[in-house]
Design a protein that fits this description.
alpha/beta; Rossmann fold; TIM Barrel; 2 domains; binds ligand 1PR
Length: 537
């Protein structure tokens, strides 16, 4: 477990914090218990579920030196979440068996509810919040009720108004939550407040990150009759292993894209892997697919395949920028570059000079980095020792066929051959060629050259349904700061939670399982949600 996925818990043993522990684990985090004040100072993220009585809690905190450590931690604006008494202790003092001094970070005195106005004390039950300022962790709460159990409460005043993020009415209009920078505290119990409570904890644990995306990918190509079909390869081989050897046909691109949009896909990618293709602008059907899809599919569309400079049979030169522009005009939000980005990265690494002339650089200069995806299509190459190659190697989770403990990931490009037929010269997709560059080197180089996102495939895993290549995805998503889309190998809903838990991928893409209707997109979303990973529902 990386330190990002561990939360430090301050449990001074005064009561039951089992539900808080369970909720944290349910959301996929490990727990480190505070033993010493240093543990507080070293925490990445600290949860303080105060339990028991105010005076007894302050007594423990003062005696152990934890009160001082807590104040230092909070004054440094380190991520903090106080719950219930964990909110009250932040105030100057409490009337509970007191007055007793608190940590003194927030102006105000914690007092007892007034039961004379007909409200039973303690407040034990569900109540709604009035959100008074942007608190981030409460973003999903809205009108939902949350669970309170307390007899004492802090009241909003001019002195503490910079802290108050929501109030609640129970006879008094009391403080339900506070927030300043990274410091949060809530009077209610998120661990007892159902889904909406879990969302509060989740938002504290995963601050400000984009929620992971699920992308449906349609590999599109002309079949032997010339119709555009959605196909799907096994390790990039898209032909049926029958006598006719035809291109596998899994449906019509526009129809499938619409269906995936309705089922909740966060993005749709079209990869034009058409074999016989003079050049993309001659490929009117693909432009038509984009036009029709974008009419009623309202999530981002990416298109890739064949984006490069091109000279046609009549000697007319088309720049990759013109090709991309045509795609954008037809409804694409992003274009994806594969082979041409490999050549650009190789040149850049050789010379150390950004010429500005590669497709990648030109398109990102005109349309912005966010519009340019680089598709990496690497193949795993096992080695016995990481120094056997000049490329970045990883220690593999599963050993190679000869017990090799390491692998590097060799980038490949589509090979174009020329076929002269009766009237025309066609380019043919003639398989893939390994290049002298690794996925790691390529990813870093294209980030430098202006790529805004990486679509990370893996030929070995493609179509196998055995899960993503975690070694590869970890390597690349840790190496670059642009978003990385994990692709190739999804076969079950668990593969998606795995990739988001164990790597820094921002999105996961699948093709086969969606096309073959083995796993609907909705089930993936539901599974992620159940696993405590936030998704767009
Ligand atoms: O090199 O710029 O012309 O781009 C070609 C594009 O086409 C690249 O993005 C490359 O990935 C893609 N491509 C080329 N040949 C194939 C093939 O299958 N023969 N498809 C191909 C790529 C891989 C993924 C696939 C995932 C998930 N397919 O797109 O969808 O592996 O599959 P799974 O969930 O079924 O495992 P250029």
């Amino acid at each position: 477990t990386s330190s990002d996925s561990v939360v430090t818990l301050l449990d001074y043993g005064a009561g039951n914090v089992r539900s808080v522990r369970n909720a944290i684990r349910h959301l996929g985090f490990g727990i480190k218990d505070v033993q010493t004040p240093e543990d507080i100072l070293n925490a990445n993220r600290l949860i303080f579920p105060g339990v028991g009585a105010f005076a007894a809690a302050m007594d423990v905190l003062n005696k152990t030196g934890m009160a001082e450590a807590l104040c230092a931690y909070i004054e440094k604006d380190r991520p903090f979440l106080g719950i219930c008494l964990g909110l009250q202790l932040l105030f100057q003092s409490s009337e509970e068996n007191g007055p007793v001094n608190g940590l003194g970070l927030i102006p105000g005195v914690v007092g007892r509810f007034d039961s004379s106005n007909g409200f039973r004390v303690p407040q034990i039950g569900w109540n709604a919040l009035q959100i008074t300022k942007d608190s981030e962790i409460l973003d999903d709460v809205g009108d939902h009720h949350v669970y309170f159990v307390h007899s004492y409460r802090a009241m909003p005043s001019d002195d503490n108004k910079e802290w108050v993020s929501s109030t609640c009415n129970y006879g008094d209009n009391f403080i339900a939550s506070v927030r300043r920078g990274n410091v949060h505290a809530v009077q209610f119990h998120p661990e007892k407040s159902g889904d909406v409570g879990l969302s509060v904890l989740r938002r504290f644990l995963h601050p400000k990150t984009n929620i992971p995306k699920v992308i449906a990918c349609l590999d599109v190509r002309a079949n032997d009759k010339g119709d555009l079909v959605v196909t799907k390869g096994d390790q990039y081989d898209v032909r049926e292993h029958t006598k006719e050897n035809e291109v596998r046909n899994l449906g019509k691109p526009v129809e499938l894209a619409r269906q995936y949009y309705k089922e909740g896909a966060d993005e749709i990618s079209f990869l034009n892997i058409t074999g016989f293709r003079d050049f993309p602008l001659g490929d009117l059907p693909m432009l038509q697919v984009l036009r029709l899809t974008s009419e009623n599919v309202f999530v981002p569309l990416t298109v890739g395949g064949g984006i490069r400079d091109f000279t046609d049979a009549n000697g007319r030169h088309y720049s990759s920028l013109e090709v991309a522009s045509e795609y954008f005009r037809s409804g694409a939000d992003k274009i994806s570059i594969g082979s041409d980005a490999v050549y650009a990265a190789e040149d850049y690494l050789k010379t150390g000079v950004k010429t500005g002339k590669s497709s990648l650089e030109q398109i990102s200069r005109v349309y912005g980095n966010q519009a340019v995806v680089v598709s990496i299509d690497p193949r795993r190459v096992y080695i016995t020792h990481p120094n056997d190659v000049e490329f970045k190697a990883v220690r593999v989770t599963d050993l190679g066929p000869n017990g090799e403990e390491y692998a590097w990931y060799q980038c490949t490009v589509g090979i174009l051959c020329f076929i002269v037929t009766f009237l025309f010269v066609h380019t043919v997709n003639g398989g893939r060629e390994g290049r002298p560059i690794g996925a790691y080197e390529l990813a870093k180089a294209v980030e430098d050259l202006g790529a805004g996102e990486i679509l990370l495939n893996c030929i070995d895993c493609d179509g196998q349904g055995k899960g993503f290549d975690m070694d590869l995805i970890k390597l690349i998503s840790d190496a670059v700061s642009i978003p990385v889309i994990a692709s190739s190998g999804a076969g079950a809903v668990e593969h998606f939670s795995d990739v988001f838990r164990k790597t820094n991928a921002s999105a996961a893409l699948a093709a086969g399982i969606f096309h073959r209707k083995e796993v609907p997109i909705q089930s993936v979303k539901e599974h992620l949600y159940k696993e405590g990973i936030e998704v767009r529902i």
